[in-house]
Amino acid sequence: MALTTALTTAVGKQTQLSEVAGIPLQAAAVDNWSQIQSFEAQPDDLLICTYPKSGTTWIQEIVDMIEQNGDMEKCQRALIQHRHPLIEWARPPLPSGVEQAKAMPPPRTLRTHLPAQLLPPSFWENSCKFLYVARNAKDCMVSYYHFQRMNQVLPDPGTWEEYFETFISGKVGWGSWFDHVKGWWEMKDRYQILFLLFEDIKRDPKHEIQKVMRFMGKNLDEAVLDKIVQETSFEKMKENPMTNRSTVPKSILDQSISPFMRKGTVGDWKNHFTVAQNERFDEIYRKKMEGISINFCMEL
Ligand code: A3P
Question: Cβ(55) to ligand 1 under 6 A?
Answer without folding.
Answer: yes
